[in-house]
Amino acid sequence: MMDELFYDAVDMLKGMISIQSFSRDEKNVADYVETRMKNLGFSPRRSGNNLWIIPSDFNPQKPTILLNSHLDTVKPSDEWSHDPFMPLEDENGRLFGLGSNDAGASLVTLFAAFRYLSTISQEYNLIFLASCEEEVGGKNGIESVIPMLPHIDVAIVGEPTNMQPAIAEKGLMVLDGAIHGISGHAARNEGVNAIYRTMELIEALRSIKFEKESALLGPVKVTVTQIEAGSQHNVIPDLCKIVVDVRTTDAYSNHETLEIIQNAVKHIDCSLTPRSTRLN
Known about the structure:
Blueprint: H1 2-17, H2 27-39, E1 45-47, E2 50-53, E3 64-70, E4 88-89, E5 95-96, H3 100-117, E6 125-131, H4 142-145, E7 154-157, E8 171-180, E9 184-185, H5 194-206, E10 221-229, E11 235-236, E12 239-248, H6 254-264, E13 270-274
Parallel strand pairs: 3-6, 3-7
Antiparallel strand pairs: 1-2, 2-6, 4-5, 8-12, 8-13, 9-11, 10-12
């Protein structure tokens, strides 16, 4: 059975690599995985692009372990040296392709473990979940499925971690910043340059000190990752936009973190608006 599980997992992973499965566009890969499950005799349940299996002998008196990984991938960068949707195996047996590592390998491996352990009487229940929208923290991913599942006592989530177990992860808050100035002609001493004001804002963000630090997750991390301004070379820009990636911890809620950041830059004519504060 071990050989069968191994070759099935590799074949399934190759199939997943060959299907484009960007976040929020996972239908085709979900269809593929669902068909594979059904061909093996399982009856997966589905909501959107999420798939899960609850065995027929599920016993609510037993503790329940969830095995989970995700179907979606990020978009490939321009640095790929071959077709990212073509599974390629090198001389060392390593399989290359978009999503082969994050997190197709985890998904097919956990599914193989689920298949094997489901054939043996256990003192616990197993549920397998292939979820979507993980790379974008989407509301239609695992967050939407958990209310449909029985109580979960332990979850094992597959991610590429070099087999080093992680027991927590930082939260995420993305801020859209708008910094205002006054337009003018670059040849004359007029206007207020929004880019120069943005430099002041960026320095203020870099200088924020959070008094509390998580013993498990370390400090809150605030990083400016995008910047956009200007319409043409001879016009003083009256607006500069930035994006700020904030990785939060259990030391502060996202709302508390946002308040600290906004107070630190309130002397600058700008706005910092969170896209969401739910990912604590």
